[in-house]
Amino acid sequence: MATKPSVLVVEDEPSIAELIAVNLRHSGFQVTVVHECVAAQHLIDTALPDLLLLDWMLPGQSGESLTRRLRANERTRDLPIVLLTARGDEADKVAGLNAGADDYVTKPFSTQELIARLRAVLRRRMPAPSSPTLQVGALSIDVGAHQAIHAGIPLKLGPTEFKLLTYFMQHVGRVHSRAHLLDAVWGNQVAIEERTVDVHIKRLREGLGEGSHLLETVRGAGYRLIISD
Ligand code: CA
User: Fold this and answer.
1) What is the pLDDT of residues 44-101, one digit of tens each?
2) 154 Cα: distance to centroid of ligand 1 (angstroms)
3) pLDDT exceeds cutoff 50 at 1
4) Residue 83, exposed/middle/buried by CB under 10 A (0-12, 13-18, 19+)?
5) What domains, with CATH codes, occur in the chain?
6) What is the CA(123)–ligand 1 centre distance, in A?
7) What is the CA(208)–ligand 1 centre distance, in A?
8) Three-state secondary structure along 65-115?
9) What is the pLDDT of residues 154-196, one digit of tens each?
């Protein structure tokens, strides 16, 4: 995350709120503290934080109720929420997760554990790239866009060559036998001969142009993609 992740803390106990705020700021978070749900909702309506750290027992509206409300709203449906619950209150934890919280931390908590959990939730909630991109040395492919690039030059590859290259890039350095490549890239199409693999490897090398040396033949074993600078 390039910028500091913003955390909205809803905690009515001033000493705990302060402890959390100080530690989170120290760990590189941007922190806003409010003491009840109405204020939290107001802030969320204005700007979505990256994460909501929400006490369960609050004056007025409960943490569970706010969680349910946020989950029911399209704008806040995916807002990461971590609940703070009292020790041993199993029913609260279950209710919290059922309400849609991503995780909970039990009071009293170690600040290290709290921060580790917040980071884990933020990592899980990071939006997945719409199309995965693989990068190996000067080679990169955008799987969704079906585009391969070597040293800045777009490559012209057929669909099978593209699939082969994707597979090699997912397993860089490993030697793959022809039979293994047939399984992995072509699937269980029994009618295809191993020689077919050689044909497509040859085409893939041609397609790689300046990068053709990256695809090595390992005598008696198969093929592998190497990293080269
Ligand atoms: Ca409380």
Assistant:
1) 998 899 999 999 999 999 999 999 999 999 889 889 999 998 867 778 778 888 889 9
2) 57
3) no
4) buried
5) 6-125 (3.40.50.2300), 133-225 (1.10.10.10)
6) 27
7) 61
8) HHHHHHHHCCCCCCCCEEEEEECCCHHHHHHHHHHCCCEEEEECCCHHHHH
9) 999 998 999 999 999 998 889 999 988 988 888 766 677 888 8
